[in-house]
Amino acid sequence: MDKFVFKINTKQHSENTQSDPVPSTSKVAEPEPIAIIEVDEELDEGVDEYFEKENKNENLKPNSEIARGVCLKRQKATRLIVGVLAPYFMKETIADIKENYFSIIIDETTELASQKSMVVIFRYWKEGKVTDRLLDLIEVHSATGESLFNTIKSIMDRNGIPYGKIIGFAADNASTMMRVWQGVQARLRELVPNIYIYAHAIHCTFVLQLLPRNCPNQLNSLLGIYSYFSHSSKRIAHLQECQIFSNEKPHKMLYPNQTRLLLEHWNSLRLFFQREALEDNLPSARAILNALNNQEYKIYFLFLSYVLELITKVNIELQSETPKLPIFLNRITTLYKTILKCFIKKTLIQKIETEYIDVNNPSNYVSLENVHVGAKLDALIKSGYLNLSLPVSNNFRQRALDFYVEFCNQVKQIFKFNDPYLKYASNFTPDFIWRCDVNC
Prior knowledge:
Residues 84-179 form the DUF4371 domain. This protein is of the alpha/beta class and 440 residues long. The chain has four domains: 7-88, no CATH class; 100-199, Nucleotidyltransferase, domain 5; 208-293, no CATH class; 299-435, no CATH class. It has 21 helices and seven strands. The protein has helices at 11-19, 44-48, 65-68, 74-99, 145-159, 175-178, 184-191, 207-210, 215-223, 225-230, 233-245, 259-264, 266-279, 283-293, 295-318, 325-340, 346-351, 375-383, 390-414, 420-425, 430-439; strands at residues 7-9, 36-38, 102-110, 116-126, 129-140, 166-171, 196-199. A five-stranded mixed sheet has the order 5-4-3-6-7, with helices on one face. The chain has a two-stranded parallel ribbon with strand order 1-2. The longest helix has 26 residues, at 74-99. The two termini are 58 Å apart.
């Protein structure tokens, strides 16, 4: 990790610098300081402690005489950061926010100790670029929309930040953030009616609604496959033998939730755990084997491997760090139509504009047996290879249909397909401009 030198200007330090300058014989160019901070005389004594002349930091900056004279240990560094640097940068950030229009980005999290915290970031334009600044990380006792809004309001009131300069608000798509009437965004709209609201990711917690009631318990067994192999070279070698016997390319489980490799090696894993259950008779091996023998769970894994790839593509577009404004509308519309084609009648998609298709109207759906769940899985079900009964197959497709509907509703809540600015920006793609030149 790179180490940086913090240069601090105090009145006493300035006098010492003038009376005892760096010898002129030094030919080393000093690095630019990260921060120059002016503090009052009452802090001089504490600050000078950080610059005791102890030559113990030979590896800090071997080409710098001044840096080798700096001694910063844990207690001193903590006092420097908390007592001097943090207040300075906080004051600088608040001054920048007051002078510029800004957006607020927040996220709430619960730690392992059940302590709720909320991070508050301000985004604004400074020196020709977009700047993000962390203003506060504050403990919250309640995660309701009202409580989180009051926390934001108290931070702005305490620092004298004007509400009139808020232009945007971004958060995840949780109900406490984006609820129409009681969410944080609704309360911010009461203060700033023209604020732009952006939910920056699709929450995938509704994936659990797709699974059968007892499936999560069996999933825990399947996710235990990684730990079963993680510390045993003997088991890994036996697994590779089973993979070769099953005509599969040898792989090992690199991390716990590696769904793709689990699907690719389903047969070899089942063969391996059959031997483990017979020879060692371990409860963990028997539990994993029972889950692998259940074809119903396999179809849900196959479906998730198909649909989660689409969700990931949508999230990548929504969270892109590169400018994509001219092609943004087209990219999201294409991905959204891909989902619609899985359960909406083809004639409706061809005749009606994307934003006007009602995904909650059952009369717009294809028949249950025609709900698309991925080419590979569709072929396996129709061929009878999985030996699924008709009730199990219909129940799975119904759950997949419900999943598609919920996913589309979340996309429409986040993205406005009829946004006039996005439609106007689409005119500036190279394709469109080239066509206009040809036509003209």
